[in-house]
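Researcher: Please translate sequence to structure tokens.
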Amino acid sequence: MEFDLSQLRGIYSAEQFKNVLLNIINTKFTDDFWNITLPNNLATSSATSLSMYAYYASLNILNADGLFSKMKVHDLLQEGLRSQKLPLEIHQLFPKAYFGIGM
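Model: Translation complete:
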């Protein structure tokens, strides 16, 4: 992050700023990231996966429906929503055995 911020030194126009940010994005998020790294990061049953949080955030922004639900993802992820079972129980969709994680 320090390196990325240092690239913004000496930037005085919106166009320069945009070009630097696009360069950083294109360097970090290559085709390999989208086709290999991200799918591998999403193939987890961990409830604390940063990639999974980003995926949920994107579903929320897109106002997506919850999988097998009439509710929106936004409603399923509400912090105040409490029940005996979590609305998004990932292990129900992807059992640990599916990922080769011991049972």
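Researcher: Any highlights?
Model: Helices lie at 2-6, 14-28, 31-42, 50-61, 73-76, 90-93.
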